[in-house]
Design a protein that fits this description.
This protein is α+β, with helices and mostly antiparallel strands and 296 residues long. The chain has two helices and nine strands; from the N terminus they run αβββββββββα. The strands form two sheets. The chain has a six-stranded mixed sheet with strand order 1-8-7-4-2-3, covered by helices on one side. The protein has a three-stranded mixed sheet with strand order 5-6-9, with no helix packed on it. About 23% of the residues have low confidence.
Length: 296
């Protein structure tokens, strides 16, 4: 192969074509080792052109916003319809009375371990049918003391409230718990009832001595029926007063505590010949005060 370059200082040969480098690449194909141009957005790459990486792809449109909006609208519509229904129900109740009775409040009852110091009343008890095996028919006023033992009085008056009630009061003796003696109240009291009017009585007060309430005995000297001198221990104590409905024997109130003072020896006394003891009677003034408050 001849050298196309003329010697140094000589003119080139006119018969030889000068070297102009490698042939030009054909149209439509990139030159070897040269990257092709990236395709335009939305156009597929032409043959012979490599697509460029990292070209962003447009996100797909979502209908989530439209769905959420429809759900919110449905909830608002439901709430509006419910509010209208409630409003109609409230308007409809204005013309009709409430068929449910308002319960009446009841007063608090003593627990039985700690006596109450003030009388407390409760609602009238529901009258029970006369099928109680312990129910009795009274023939005398003293028969109403059976209420203190739990026996209803069949022919007693029905308790309808404290304002119009008639009452009897009985107390027992610590040495004779089952024996109940009648306590007299003033005849000027509204709740007073004569012995002959015992069927008009609807309330029975029962007084039992509070266990352990005995005071120090007071020595009282007497002359017995046989002429002998005797010394009797006269004992003070406290009584718990409880009110019951005579016809049902149900508890209806707490009359509090009644003192039985033994400060002075009585002119006449009943005593136990074996123990030589006698217990003071409950104070009548305190009994009437308790009745006044409970039956007012």
């Amino acid at each position: 192969m001849s050298n196309s370059h003329p010697p140094y200082g000589e003119q080139p040969d006119p018969n030889v074509t000068p070297w102009s480098g490698p042939p030009a690449p054909s149209a439509g194909y990139p030159a070897y080792g040269q990257p092709g141009q990236a395709p335009q957005y939305g156009q597929a790459p032409q043959f012979g052109q490599a697509p460029q990486f990292g070209v962003p792809v447009p996100p797909q449109k979502s209908n989530r916003g439209l769905v959420i909006g429809l759900i919110i609208g449905a909830v608002v519509l439901i709430l509006a319809l419910c509010g209208a229904g409630i409003g109609l129900a409230l308007v409809g109740n204005d013309d009709e009375p409430d068929p449910t009775p308002t319960p009446s409040a009841t007063a608090n009852q003593g627990s039985g371990t700690e006596p109450s110091s003030t009388p407390q009343a409760s609602d009238p008890p529901t009258e029970q049918p006369n099928n109680n095996n312990n129910a009795v028919t009274a023939r005398y006023s003293s028969d109403l003391s059976s209420v203190c033992d739990g026996s209803p009085i069949l022919n007693a008056a029905t308790y309808t409230g404290p304002a119009t009630a008639k009452a009897y009061v009985f107390s027992n003796n610590p040495e004779r718990p089952s024996f109940w003696s009648s306590k007299i109240v003033g005849s000027d009291k509204r709740y007073y009832a004569k012995s002959a009017d015992f069927t008009s009585v609807s309330v029975v007060g029962c007084m039992s001595m509070v266990p352990g309430s005995e005071g120090a005995p007071k020595k009282c000297d007497y002359k017995a029926s046989d002429g002998k001198n005797v010394s009797v221990s006269y004992i003070s104590s406290r009584y718990q007063l409880t009110f019951y409905a005579a016809k049902t024997a149900e508890k209806i109130g707490d009359g509090g505590v009644v003192n039985a003072p033994a400060t002075r020896c009585p002119s006449f006394i009943s005593y136990n010949k074996t123990t030589m003891k006698a217990y003071a009677a409950p104070d009548s003034g305190t009994i009437e005060a308790a009745l006044d408050k409970f039956l007012s």
